[in-house]
Amino acid sequence: MSAPSAPRLLAALFRRLLRGDLGAEACDAMEREHRERRARDGANRAWLWYAGHLLRPDTWRLAVALRRRARSSRLRGGRLGAAGVSVLDVKLGLRMLVKNPALTAVSGLATATSIALGVLCFGFFQDFFLRPELPLPEGERIVSLGLVNDATGRTERRLLHDFVAWRAELESVEDVGAWRAVSRNMIGADGTAEPVVVAEMTASGFRVAGVPPLLGRWLREADEVEGAPPVVVIGHDVWQTRFGGDPEVTGRTLQLGRVRPEVVGVMPRGYAFPLSNALWTPLRWDAADHELMASSARGYAFGRLAPGTTRAQADAEMAVLTRRRAAEHPETHEHLRGVVMSYTDTHTGMDNASAGGVLVTLVLTFITLILAVPFVNVAILVYARTARRAGEIALRNALGASRRRVVTQLFMEALVLSGLAAVAGVTLGLWALERLHVLMSVEVMNQAFGGVPFWARQGRGPATLAYALGLTLLAAVVSGVVPGLRATGKRAQSNLARLSHGNGMRLGAVWTLLIVVQVGSTVAFVPPAASLAWSLLGDAVTLPTFATEDLLVAGLALPPEPDGAGEREGTSTPIGDLLRRLEEERGVTGVTYASGLPGVTFEGSSRIEIEGVPMPEEGGSHRAGSMGLAPDFFGTLDVPILSGRAFHRGDPEGQPVPVIVNRTLVRRILGDRNPLGRRLRVVGPRDAEPGPWHEIVGVVDDLTTNPLNGGRARSRFFRPLPAPDSLSRATLVLRVPSSPGDFASRLRRITTAVDPTLGLGFVMPVTDTNDPFRTPMHVVVLGIMIAVLSVLLLATASVSALMSFNVTQRRREIGIRSALGADPRRVLAGIFSRSAAQLGLGGLVGIAGAVFLERTFVPEMIPDHQPAVGVLLVVATLMVGAGLLATAGPARRALGIEPSEALREG
Amino acid sequence: MSLGDLQQMTMLAVARVAPEAWGAAIRDELAAVAGREVSVPTVYVTLVRLEEQGLVTSSEVPREDGVGGPPRRVFELTPDGWEALEGARTAMRRMWRGVVRP
Prior knowledge:
Structural class of chain B: mainly alpha
Oligomer: heterodimer
Largest sheet of chain A: 11 strands, mixed
Order of helices and strands of chain B: HHHEEH
Shape of chain A: globular
Strand content of chain B: 5-15%
Strand content of chain A: 5-15%
Number of strands of chain A: 24
Helix content of chain B: 40-55%
Radius of gyration of chain A: 38 Å
């Protein structure tokens, strides 16, 4: 044997024996010393020295220590970070996701849906209610000045005279100003009118905002003087769209209704102070022209806190001023209190109660708790899985992994899932928030204020993402840490003893309670929620029962304060003139009007009473939508009268005024009774005086049905509208056979020609009104539907997991009973009867809850509500059926185990 | 925590050769300063046990001696290690106090 070859063999042996980086290092050190010894003492002595290490106890002690070290390192997750978290945990988490695809899909969907809804709700609240800061120079110093009526708790907007006093006397607030929104028609060169909201504002408003104009100048105090030439400052968008970005725009004019103010300035892109405005004209608001507390004295006041002054100090000064005014005008100001408020709160309805912020916080907390319900479901699923891993967990405990370490790893597994779900959820939530903004800017906010406030752009900011992160962590804690703590509790050691038997944790009464709560809450809440979503959808998605292909619908309104139009001559209003003009228009084959159009405009609901028909029960009432129609409405739209007659011209003045009811109202309220000749009236709240009686003279088809709800329609009754000459607003319906869409611009030009002050709001073909996501309600309904479906899916999965695990727990008992000769059918019957009892109890609790909700909250929220008995039965059957099905597999397996194996367990 | 003689020596060697306290350097230091010849496995098994007790901690550092090869695992005393070492020294001093060779 030659000396040089021996060390290579020995080196290989040592390297096999001494594992890991430290082992390799020790091998390196021994080889180096071997080389030194060979050079000094000769090859043979060196070889002997080297080989002698194989026999040394410390070599073997090192081998054992290195193996222990490697195993400990693996069990503790390799290289641990500061938080005791390692990359290995993340890898394990991903592996668990792949290993349990069904659990991953169900849990991921539920978590993503919850987070998406959370982002939507929080983003919305962040935008409008959570005291966002104004994105203006020193925006936090801009405040609103207002009056609160302490007797009613309401905000008083008729503050013109107080504003004049504040402007003269307040020292802690500078540049006190005021504004009000007025509707005007902006008329283009081609004669088309576009309804716009103009901010009539004091010149100080521009100083308060502190943003210099892009071109020209701000408004000046001199512009506010009665008789001064009309001027307007325009926003960037108007400058681009109306003037093509003309750099010489100052000096040109813009037609607003009958007035042609001169453009004196252009504000930069994005500027929209005081709310969401793109046109500013001077506020010519002389207190002498208005009575104290006249409705024309309504507006908003604002200012900037003086340097070194706090809002509390300004508020105190305000209180002194208003006390003085209360002494001067006790008849109007006795209960009024002047307040200095956060600017944004004034425009979000939070200004009359300091508790508003608390309320929003409570609402958000409630929403968060609701959103956490699916996390609890996920926790149940994960718990069931964790229970199956009890053996692994107990072994790791025994090998030295601390409870904290095991729980951390389970938390990381849950975090990987919730993190991935959060990416999808946040994306979906932000999309829905954006969509809601667009829809609100078109509908709700435009009608209420003239647009979405300019500061409401923060819902997509860091706060919302932080909230989403919080929800993600909450999901991981609830679905990871809670099951982890349970699984590594005191019973973990006893689980180790049962490792070989494949048993998990014994749960007993807690498990039964979980099953009952899970089944009960699902059966109780899902049907009313589905019912609510379906009902909302029924209002938002409707199909007309008459031909609408050639119909064009438009909203008409007279401005509340005609801008210098003066008294109109004769009795005809512009709406009457417009209708007569349209009847002569070539291509228009029918013109009619109504107070609204089902499926297109918002439709209220009234409590009604029909003579000779008892009310549903004590405190209950019949409900129906109501709408005013032109006498020729049904004829123009070719809607057949099913019985009785259509309206006549003289009907509005009839005694009693006749009404026509729809088919659904007859079916729901009257049943087989003849409706014709019966009297109907609107009954208000309990103590209010009922309205006058009407006589039912006809029955008409439903006008719209909900295709998603079995063709159901709302109960409706229709009143005859007076002649259009006396109307200040109406919904116009035109029959334009050639192309209703193309006639829209022509309609705008005709409207402007008839009267430039006549506001023409929406104009669209009726067929366009069922676009998806057309209204904010669509987004809300979509959210509810997704949530309901995901809750149902998750609840079904949870119940299945609970039942399956519940039977698995009883494996030994079942095995022993089989071993003792029990009839398998009796054993099986015992298993199923216990499962059925648990599920049945849950189902009964749920049905009781659902009935309670159906009788109390749901009718208040859904007029015309029909109890969702079908949905209730489907959900109850689904939950009980899924639970029993999940019982079958484990029960069959338990019956199949060998008696000896069963006796060995425990 | 009571420390064995070899454990104390090894920890002191770790402290002396820091920040280059890897196995061979520690062994060399034990030989050079304390005159204590210990085998390579003995040094490493002592280090592993000290690490398990939380008295030393180790980290990988790349080799800078131009030899190449895998990174070395370098040891340093933990606060617990320092406390144990100082406790051992104090205990030894107390024991010696008042002791006179007859």
